[in-house]
């Protein structure tokens, strides 16, 4: 009977611990993204290229 109570207490502690970890992960995720503007991608800074007559790609004019 004592083993059953011990396993039950360990199970309850594991559930409470997991819920606490999930809440903390959500809090940290929110804090990381609240002041973060939309991330700029590298492709946003690159000019569009077009193939020239000689087959070489150059920035679009």
Question: Could you explain how this protein is built, in words?
Answer:
This protein is mainly alpha-helical. 54% of the residues lie in helices and 10% in strands. Strand 1 and strand 2 form a beta hairpin. The model has no long low-confidence stretch (mean pLDDT 88).
Write the layout of secondary structure elements.
Blueprint: H1 2-34, E1 49-51, E2 57-59
Antiparallel strand pairs: 1-2
Report a brief summary of the structure:
The chain is mainly alpha-helical and 61 residues long. The chain has one helix spanning 2-34, and strands spanning 49-51, 57-59.
**Number of DSSP-assigned strands:** 2
What is the global morphology?
Answer: rod-shaped
Structural class: mainly alpha
Q: How far apart, in Å, are the first and last alpha carbons?
A: 81 Å
Major sheet, described briefly? 2 strands, antiparallel
Widest sheet: strand order? 1-2
| Beta-strand percentage range | 5-15%
Order of helical and strand elements: HEE
Helix content: 40-55%
Mean pLDDT comes to 88
Oligomer kind: single chain
- Per DSSP, the total helix count is 1
Rg for CA atoms: 27 Å
């Amino acid at each position: 009977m004592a083993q059953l109570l011990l396993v039950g207490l360990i199970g309850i502690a594991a559930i409470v611990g997991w819920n606490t970890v999930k809440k903390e992960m959500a809090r940290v995720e929110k804090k990381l993204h609240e002041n973060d503007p939309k991330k700029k991608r590298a492709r946003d800074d690159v000019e569009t290229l077009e193939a020239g007559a000689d087959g070489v790609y150059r920035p679009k004019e």
